[in-house]
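Side project, low priority. Logging it here so it doesn't get lost.
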Amino acid sequence: MTKLFTLLLSVSVVTAFAQNRKIPTDTTVVTTDTATINGKSFQYTATTGTQPVWNADDEPIATLFYTYYERNDIKDRANRPLVISFNGGPGSASVWMHIAYTGPKVLNLDEEGYPVQPYGIKNNPHSILDVADIVYVNPVNTGYSRMIKNKEGKLPNRDTFFGINADIKYLAEWINTFVTRKNRWESPKYLIGESYGGTRVMGLANALQNSQWMYLNGVIMVSPADYKQYNTGQPEYSALNLPYYAATAWYHDKLPSDLQQKDLLEVLPEVENFAINKLMPAIAKGGFISEAEKNSIAEQYAKYSGLSKTAILQNNLDVPTNFFWKDLLRDENGHIIGRLDSRYLGLDKKDIGVKPDYSPELTTWNHAFTPAINYYIREHLKFKTDIKYNMFGSVHPWDDSNDNTRDGLRQAMAQNPYLKVLVQSGYYDGATTYFGAKYTMWQIDPSGKMKDRFAFKGYRSGHMMYIRNEDLKTANDDLREFISNSLSNGKAAKYEVD
């Protein structure tokens, strides 16, 4: 009887102190800190919190977690650029660029971008906070962002959020509210999106202009993922992978000596020319290509890729990236190479097979970024919750139909003479290859009338090129230059005839 009473008492105590684990719908926490960037020190304010997503009846259906940085010594905020930052996935939190690229703090990493214990953060001397204020936005189910139940206790329809066009629609409205709350309508505005975020910001540029009447100065795509390439089902698009294969083979010393002794940037133009002018048409011929041409193409492919001619022929000139990651070093040391950054090495259970067991670079990043962002938000930004921070959230199934984002960006640029585009890519990125990013850039405006408003920058690292210290500095400097070159400086927004 005594044991039963004790058990009942324990249950009642737990019940009395139980709390619902949920994120507040609308809240902010404000902190201040000091940054030293390019040798100059200044104070900044960090506002982190949640802001609702509203439905047509002005009811909150979700809340998005964000972190907003403002430099404090700015008297004229109207001329101060605002950068709105997204990561990708879809389903990835806005963590990677936040604490490894553009923000005032970065992870503890070595010079090449490998994590160093103890996990944590340090000041970022290259952040663009000296020239622009920045907000990092976490879409629904990423970070601390969550859907909200209605009065009947039901969650909204997942289709409201999880698809190319749904994502663009609600985020455009959320940005409108954010800009209004922070009184930034006068400011020059920029979107930056990494990976799937590239697709997102292409679509957002058009949606912001035509649904929210908000015009931008710039769109920045970092290692962009373009579904127009991935969803075609056409094998000739695999030719776009060869320059990446060549870069990675060069890095791992797998090219013939005549190529290996050259600098990477001397090798790549030759490979790009072959890929677009020889390999792509050859693959397009399919089974009706002549044996002589097929063998000639395979031989050159082998020279540029580090793969065997036999393997290339067995793949009918259409070599999957999975196979490349598994095969490049198979016979040399049995290592696999990373998908998102092919400088990384891993070990599979068996050397045999056509694809790696895992992605060595992603596991490395996860075990460095996850503790760092959780520590930083809680201890530095002072935002405390029992909700789990989703590095990757549940957003699938994802509706990628009716993808008109490329043309949406073209339309936004045509309507807005101010709008310029910067593409940044790492040469060793095998997920969203640098040559694929160039191809996307070429296809946005087939007329070529706006090509002088596009810029491409490449770096000697992978998908997150900024984790390598040399590229962290260079890539942020490239952002500064892009922002400076895309400010209006009093010039009217109009087309002029020469």
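Brief comment: Confidence is low (pLDDT under 50) at residues 1-18.
Revisit when time allows.
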